[in-house]
Amino acid sequence: MSQVIVVASGKGGTGKTTVSTSLALALTRKNYKVLVIDCDSGMRGSDMMLGVTQKLVYDLSDVISGTCALSDALYECDGAKGLFTIAAPVLAEDEISPQIMKQFIGENKNNYDYVIVDAPAGVGTGFESAAIAADRALVVVNTEPISVRGGVNILNRLSEMGITDARLVINRFDKERFLATGLYEDLDEVIDTVGIRLIAVVPEDVRIAALSQRGILATNWCSSTVIFDALTERLKGNDVPLLIKL
Ligand SMILES: Nc1ncnc2c1ncn2[C@@H]1O[C@H](COP(=O)(O)OP(=O)(O)OP(=O)(O)O)[C@@H](O)[C@H]1O
Ligand SMILES: [Mg+2]
Q: Which of 87, 115, 197, 206 is the most exposed place for a label (fewest CB within 10 A)?
């Protein structure tokens, strides 16, 4: 059965698109068929991180308006068989409404094992459109109070929308910096403040930024492949160690 996962954060730039695309890639490494839907209208980024920008012609708004067929707007990633993406509209004003998004995902999700929805930052209508059809959510935070507060806000909105299966991803974790700032006693304090179970701690890693920003799929070993392979196991309910200790 298909699963729809929204990747969200209150604060911008926490790593939602990096997490969405890295998770999608990890799932295809396990031979799942995956669709990444970019819901960040006006600020799309998944196409770049998945390396399909050069061949991009149509986006989600073209499908919804009937300008093209769905198959024309689905782009399969080179080097990752079974990983498809559909881009967000170029213009913010072409944002897809929650009702239409719900219908679109409902009609198409069963063609995939996983649908990963990359949400825009914040708790506005764009977030609602991204989350409306989700079975579960990944809430991405960095270890800073503003980011953590954003995570709490997202969680409240998810709960109002009836999405109760939410797990926490701590991204860009830098132990030295974390300890030096002294903002939190330990990672448990971050987790307790957001108030949901942790599913992954992704380290601050220049290779993650370099690969994803160039649209090069992280198929060779780097911290990203290990962390996200483990995350896919935990999504399936398997007990895999977290790989990071404080
Ligand atoms: N674990 C990481 N290590 C190093 N750099 C990272 C990591 N995760 C993300 N980044 C970098 O942080 C920046 C923001 O990441 P990303 O675009 O994924 O965030 P976002 O939450 O999707 O942002 P937005 O809110 O604008 O959509 C990018 O430059 C990305 O390469
Ligand atoms: Mg993004």
A: 206
